[in-house]
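Ticket #4471: structure output looks truncated?

Reporter: J.K.
Steps to reproduce: submitted the chain below (146 residues) through the standard prediction queue, then opened the result file.
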Amino acid sequence: MKTTKMLTRDSADQTWYVVDAEGKVLGRMATKIADVLRGKHKPTFTPNSDMGDFVIVVNADKVKLTGKKMTGKVYYSHSAYMGGLKSTTPEKVLGSAHPERIVEWAVRGMLPKTRLGDRLFTKLKVYVGPEHPHKAQQPKVLAVNE
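Returned output as attached by the reporter:
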């Protein structure tokens, strides 16, 4: 009788990847990053375990949006108080002090809305410029097509 081997987070071999977001389409890039964070690119993928890898995104402020999404797409947040609805566009976010949030929001929306998704999201590191402090992890370049 054969049994299915269920892997755990402890048995996962996690590697580090770096993605240069300059000129890349946001949605396509975020899809690939979410798959790597989740571990779907590995043959040992287990849906209920953190089997994914770490991803570093550099040049997050130079990401590209297609069509009229730069002004037409709207991000909403609510403070749970009456009249507490706030809205912003990608154009405003990229011009603000934290342009890396647009990549974080795109990837976070593609991860599970559970405690597992929260854990996976902590393995995403997003930086505005071309430099990052994770040189010691020797990240590999992740190929993201446009």
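Triage note (M.O.): checked the attachment and the full token line is present. Strands lie at 16-20, 54-58, 75-78, 85-88, 124-126, 140-141.
Status: closed, working as intended.
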